[in-house]
Amino acid sequence: MTDDTAPHTPASHRRRWIGWSVTALVVLLLLCIGWVVVRGLSAVTSLQSVKTSASQLRADAAAGDLGSATDEARSLAKHADSARGLTSDPIWRAFEIVPWLGSDFTAVREVSQIADDIATDGVAPLLEASDGIDLKGFGLHDGAIDLAPFAKAQKPLSAAATAFARASADAGRIDTGALLPPLADAVSELRSTVDEANGIVDALHGATVLIPSMLGGDGPRTYVIAMLNNAELRSDGGIVGAFAAVRADHGSLSIVGQASTADFPALSDPLPLSASTAALFGDGPGRYIQNISSIPDFAEAAPLLATRWQDRFGTRIDGAMAIDTVVAQHLLRVTGPQQVGPLRLDADNVLPTLLSDVYRLVPDPRAQDAVFAGVAGQLFTAALHSEDPRALVTQMADAAAENRIRLWSAHDDEQRIIAASALGGALPQDTAAHPHVGVLINDTTGGKMDYYARASITVATGVCHGDPTTRVSVTWTSTAPADAASSLPEYVTGGGYYGVEPGSIGTRIAVYGPAGAAPTRIRRDGVEEKVQTADLDGRIAIQHEVVLAPGASSTITVDYTGEGAGIRSTDVVHTPMASDPKIESVTLSCAS
Description:
By secondary structure, the protein is an alpha+beta fold. The chain has helices at about 10-60, 65-85, 90-95, 100-130, 150, 155-170, 180-215, 275-280, 285, 300-315, 325-335, 350-360, 365-385, 390-400, 410-420, 485, 490-495, and strands at about 140, 145, 220-230, 240-250, 250-260, 320-325, 340, 345, 405-410, 435-445, 455-465, 465-480, 505-510, 515-525, 530-535, 540-550, 555-560, 570-575, 580-585. The chain has 17 helices and 19 strands. The model has no long low-confidence stretch (mean pLDDT about 85).
């Protein structure tokens, strides 16, 4: 009988060993893939629960329900800790080095860590701070604010602010360009949410430091408030139209003086200005008090306001604030309708009334000043005695987020905190992940025609011919009626006094790019023309003079290349207007 079985040679042993090894590796790889898939899906579920808990936590806090907020915070922490644990084991970390997909695994782990850090180090001290503050009334009662709880909340809010700032920085370091599109969008949403929360918590911490001293906890303070009129635009929101002096004494606020620009004659010797302000606006802001709001950095503008008031009335000024007309709309949403002289104002009609109709109803400029002073005084008093202080704080926070409130303190320790916040009204600070571009709008009509102006801003980013490029396009449009020259009051059209035909809108539009970037291509309606330039703290501003007839529009386009250019997450800062500009971010077309 013959044995047909082949002999077990060394070669066959090697083949069999290789076959078993490959099979084992494949099985192991499949097990690892199954492991990370199961844990990845569980992590995603946990992160979705984190998002849900965070939304509910925000709603509970806004409603002043600290008990429910605390319970929701525990749930958030539990889900965040779960997501972090699911994405931190050695197998998950090994998949982070896999080509093409490794960056996605890394991003999921980093997102989980950020969520866990916020839940552990940020939310807990935030709730501790909230426990000492009346979330429904914010200490406001009968026109005064209780200052004691704010001092008590400083320490826990400092810890929370540190945690949120760290989380914001960590989120900013995640490279979304290497991620799959759905994950890139999710990370971008997380980044925006964390950045917003960081700003809010930082502002709360700053408020607990500033409020006790700025509201007279250590002795009376006096502030000058400039009211800006958006119908005649300036960089900060509008021309200075009226003033109020406010006294703060141990949390109690009262108006102690009012004035109009007519009380401040032009100076023969202008106050000193920065080189960039002088390059864009000449000596006007230093000579005419109404033009001080052309200065884009409020830390430069506010001391001029304080100086002019002190020189005129002899009152020592501890700080300054600028608010625009849209803030009145926010206040009326809290106070309800108000009767001011011949005007009945509510949140729906206040803007057309104060920015347009008043010049027809009250043609005398001095009488107009009296109306604006009356509106300011009545809204101030009504807001301080509001039956819903939480709604008041919410509306003021919304106005601040729209850059309609700017603040400065003459006390250096306070000003350092203000300057680092959105209320400081400074030019934006760029980061590697978040550069900024900006648009400054200043009227040259000498009337109130900007009520009829509209703007749209498009930011296109990409790489063309090897150069990272950011293109800023501003389209400026007049919606004035065709017969504006004859149908609108001369006070509104300017009457041609400053060289702009009645009915037309004259405007200086300045575009500035990311810090360090250089303008390489400048066009207005596709054609080069003479422009003004200025260096705004490392940002190159390009300013055009534009005059529009009723119904006309014009588009300014500036390309920036170099440092900070070409980044998708570029933010836009602009002059606050009565009608918010339409803002769009798109991918740059190199063919254009």
